[in-house]
Amino acid sequence: MTMRTISCANPRRCHLAALTAPFEAFEKPGLVVRYQVSNVRIYKGALAAINASGFLIPIAHGTASLKFAGVANETVDNSAGAAGDKSIILSKAGSFVFKAVAGFTPTVADIGKEVYANTDWEVQIATAGLTNQYKVGTITAMETTSTGVAGVRVRIDNYCV
Questions:
Q1: What integer best gives the mean pLDDT of the chain?
Q2: CA 28 → CA 32, 44, 93, 96, 110, distances in Å?
Q3: Whole-angstrom Cα distance, residue 149 to residue 145?
Q4: Cα dihedral 116/119/120/126 (nearest 10)
Q5: Rounded to the nearest 5°, which phi and psi values hold at 114?
Q6: Could you give the CA distance from residue 18 to residue 24 in angstroms, rounded to a whole number?
Q7: Closest CA to 56 of 80, 87, 33
Q8: 95-100 and 122-124: which strand pairing?
Q9: What secondary structure does DSSP assign to 29-62, as a single string?
């Protein structure tokens, strides 16, 4: 790929034409971080959170004092071990498809709305029925999950600790 240099006597008045062909914007994958896992199993694709003890668990609205940490890139089973015996890699940026909780039928009018975690793979826009309200991202599209059910694509950027 060749780069061309553009010179302009007055940079404030120098304008480039809009794209007329594809352009490589050099996207970088979202930030990934390794966390120690509590004595639980966390599945790939799960919404995960840091508990009050500082270990990672699957997020659930019924568990108090959680901090949303990201989406699991792998499955790690530490259910037979002590908290911290194993670790897991999470994505802390990007967008992911999650199941719409029962009773939430997403529409295009929901694009741009924030979602709350119900379980480690279910989200909703309303706070009704949630013991604890953990915001995990913003809806960017309506999509079908990998299991074939109605879902939403959620951008998690700036919602993770």
A1: 90
A2: 11, 21, 10, 16, 27
A3: 5
A4: -20
A5: -80, 150
A6: 14
A7: 87
A8: parallel
A9: PPPEEEEEB-SSEE-TT-EEEE-TTS-EEE--TT
Cβ 153 vs Cβ 143: under 8 Å: yes
Ramachandran angles phi, psi of 6, nearest 5°: -115, 125
Tokens of 6: 């553009």
Provide the whole-model pTM. 0.81
The candidate with the shortest Cα–Cα distance to 152, out of 160, 161, 142, is: 142
**At 52, which amino acid appears?**
A
pLDDT digits (tens, 9 = 90+) for 81-105: 999 999 999 999 999 999 999 999 9
First to last CA, the chain: 38
- CATH 3.30.429: does it fit domain 32-155? no
